[in-house]
Amino acid sequence: MNTNAMSQEHIIYLRGIRRQNRTVSFFRYFILIAAVALWELAARLGWIDPFIMSSPSRVWDTIIRLYGDNELFHHIAVTMLETVVGFVLGTILGTLIAVILWWSRSLARILDPYLVVLNALPKIALGPILIVWFGAGIKSIIIMGLLISLIVTVMTVLAGFNEITDEKQLLMRTLDASRIQILTMVVLPASIPTIMSALKISVGMSWVGVIVGEYLVSRAGLGYLIVYGSQVFKLDLVMASIVILCVLAAIMYYCVAYFEKRLIKWRDWA
Amino acid sequence: MAEILLEADNVGLTYHQPTGETLAVDNITFSINRGEFLSIVGPSGCGKTSILSMIAGLMEPSHGKIILHSNHRPGYMLQRDHLLDWRTVEGNVLLGLQVKRILDDNTRAFALSLLDTYGLSDFTKSYPRQLSGGMRQKVALIRTLACSPELLLLDEPFSALDYQTRLKACDEMYGIIRNEGKTAILVTHDISEAISMSDRILVFSSRPARIKAEHQITLSAGNTPLERRNSPEFKDYFDIIWKEIDHEH
Question: If you placed Cys at B165, which of A76, B77, B161, B242 could pair as Cys (CB 3.0 to 4.6 Å)?
Fold first, then answer.
């Protein structure tokens, strides 16, 4: 765009947009900083009991201590591993099941009520069973993380597949395409945006599954730290773990979002 | 002497639905010569598209038979271009060749030469979303032509375009189809469009579709559909066909 040719009106308009953006980011940071400051202040001035409520400085000290004991990254690594494996497996398996159900309309019809019930079922209820079946270890936790995202992935992705217009498939048939070709050349690529948004949902779900799994069984991981901390009444440890979880979950979400943007660059041309 | 490319002999089609069966097409017999441009007009929902689907081999006729004297499958153009958003123009044009597993240096060069000839060479690396409606439809036509079909089936290919674009696209497509020496069957509910493009028009009755009338179109003026619309005979054809379709209601 030619800056010289800009009218006064347009300059004012652009300035308005910039001002609004600045206001939004200001308040985003402001809320975070104010909350942390208020928390710290309340703890120092004795408005709240730091033993129960902890405080930002105590959380920080706890994180430093964990780091010093070489424990911080160990726990983070365990939880991250469980989540990533659970969520990647859940997505792959979920997409695979969706492909099978897309392929066979009869099978999809037969299994539909089962999917609906399984989707409604709180998967966390299966935790104790998983522990009995797969042992009190990392395997159960990963399966928990997988299960909790699996059904949602199947349903979202299958709905995405079915949304690809019949006419696009008709076009492929006029070109003499086989069903495999329709799947790989049209349905899958057209569904990448859907699969990516399913991914964004399931990444959060997997965190839930893994943390609950760690509550039930485990000797390491952030979920373990939270449970252990609450049992021995070290609320600093609990709060510190939650803060770390927040950061990790955010990082993982943005990774998926970045991946999504890279993968569907043709969408930029609207 | 004109050579017959396609024969439809006593073709009928019955649709089955849970609520009952519908006779969609009844007793259709016609043939089309190589290089001819044939249009099928009729009231909407009369089964015009069913005929194209059967010629394209997407549906089997319930009775009668369709004989195509060609080694190539007919090329089919749908109402909407259905370009794949994630493929470039080039990728879209090569789609049919890839599907048929006949993509090699020769067929690729041919497809790209079509883009070149018809003024799209600057857009080979563009994505469909960057193109206008008329250009998209042209890419869809070239995608169809890339597989070298002898017979083109056009199912209201302009209906998704606005009026101005539609007249222009019509001219361009007509030019391309004539230039490539293709035989074409156009299905449309737009009588003017049919008269302006065709050598011959079949008027279908409402469901079940039967051939109600047949018109050989001879216009004294013009080489393009837009110019042909100005021929003195144009209006007469329009009136006759209009009445034939109107009496169906």
Answer: B161
Residue B109 located in a structural domain: yes
Measured between beta carbons, the chain B residues lying within 8 angstroms of A190 are 84-86
Q: Is residue B81 part of a domain?
A: no
The Cβ of residue B187 has, within 10 Å, a number of other Cβ atoms equal to 23
Q: Provide, as residue numbers in chain B, all residues whose Cβ is less than 8 Å from the Cβ of A170.
A: 58, 78
Mean pLDDT of each 10-residue bin along chain B, 249 residues long: 82 87 86 90 81 88 88 86 89 90 88 86 88 86 88 86 83 86 89 87 84 81 81 81 74
Which run of H or of E encompasses B183? strand B183-188
- Is the ipTM above a cut-off of 0.95? no
Strands B4-17 and B20-33, sheet pairing: antiparallel
- For the entire predicted model, the pTM comes to 0.80
H-assigned helices in B95-224: 95-99, 105-117, 133-145, 163-179, 191-197
**Do both A21 and A94 map to the same domain?**
no
Residue B79 lies inside a defined structural domain of this protein: no
Check if A181 contacts B (Cβ < 8 Å).
yes
Nearest-by-Cβ selection for B99 from A165, A168, A185: A185
Stretch (H or E) spanning B51:
helix B48-56
Q: Which domain holds residue A14?
A: 8-48
**Is A269–B95 a contact, with Cβ atoms under 8 angstroms apart?**
no
